[in-house]
Design goal:
single chain; about 280 residues; alpha+beta; Fructose-1,6-Bisphosphatase, Chain A, domain 1; D-Maltodextrin-Binding Protein, domain 2; 2 domains; five-stranded mixed β-sheet; about 35% helix; about 25% strand; disordered C terminus
């Protein structure tokens, strides 16, 4: 096994320590100058993101010498870091505060994520909830579970497959390009309910625990998706990019749909992004 459950727990502890030291003391305590824009008014970074990432990176380097660390904020400064994921014998992909806009506006719906990759394959994923203080953890081949501070575990399992009109899920369509940017929102009524929590960390936890049926994403930066994708896989789900190809953490586009099984994925893909509008509306 290239990465063990014990090693994943060591990473989980690193995320918790960083959150307790750098994130939670700043929650609902940020001054105007501690919140900044990156690529757009929707793309925020705070002092908590930067301080937590530095702390996580330092701890990972001490625990796993020689590993490649690809942090969201570090990659903003040095985009070439992304190119190292495919070949690294051990790499960590870190999102210190996923759901930064929620965090910056005082909404307690954000997470701290880390994915572990070996030669471009995701082998472990950890999503920490700094508010509740528990982890969602997946290790390739060993399943996915919620782990609490007292080390008690609850296994994760995706929802059972149900008919398309009864499905509930999360759709992030902001980054879609035309014609999908217009097509997908117009077809959302084909399912029972659609939400967006502005936080992939919690959306992946929801879908992996069976509390919704699917997630749908356009932009695929690895710090947003690699950990949650494995969580969903190890919880028994099926996922693929819009064209049916398998997801890899080196992908940054092409979309991603996570569903209970392959048949559900096909129904969702055809209904939401398929070119034949009439066929989609009759499903």
């Amino acid at each position: 096994m290239p990465f063990s459950a014990d090693q994943a727990l060591a990473v989980a502890s690193i995320l918790r320590e960083a959150a307790e030291a750098e994130i939670m003391p700043r929650f609902r305590n940020l001054s105007e100058g501690q919140i900044r824009h990156k690529s757009s008014v929707r793309d925020l970074v705070t002092d908590a993101d930067e301080a937590a990432e530095k702390r996580i990176e330092s701890a990972l380097r001490a625990r796993f010498p020689g590993a490649v660390i690809v942090g969201e904020e570090a990659t903003e400064r040095d985009p070439s870091l992304l190119g190292r994921l495919g070949d690294a014998s051990l790499a960590f992909v870190v999102d210190p505060v996923d759901g930064t806009k929620n965090f910056a506006t005082g909404l307690p719906l954000f997470g701290t994520m880390a994915a572990v990759t070996v030669k471009g394959e995701v082998v472990a994923g950890i999503i920490y909830d700094p508010v509740d203080g528990d982890w969602a953890i997946a290790v390739r081949g060993e399943g996915a579970w919620i782990e609490r501070r007292d080390r008690t575990r609850s296994p994760l399992r995706v929802a059972d497959a149900i008919p398309l009109p009864e499905m509930e899920g999360c759709i992030s369509w902001y980054h879609l390009k035309e014609p999908l940017r217009s097509r997908v929102p117009s077809r959302m009524p084909c399912v029972a309910s659609v939400a967006s929590y502005r936080c992939a960390a919690h959306e992946y936890r929801l879908v992996a625990s069976g509390h919704c049926h699917f997630t749908f994403y356009a932009k695929l930066m690895p710090w947003d998706h690699a950990a949650g994708w494995l969580l969903h896989q190890e919880a028994g789900g099926y996922s693929a990019r819009f064209d049916g190809s398998a997801y890899r953490p080196t992908h940054v586009d092409g979309g991603l749909i996570c569903a209970p099984d392959e048949e559900s994925w096909n129904l969702l893909r055809d209904a939401l992004v398929g070119e034949d509008r009439g066929a989609a509306q009759t499903m």
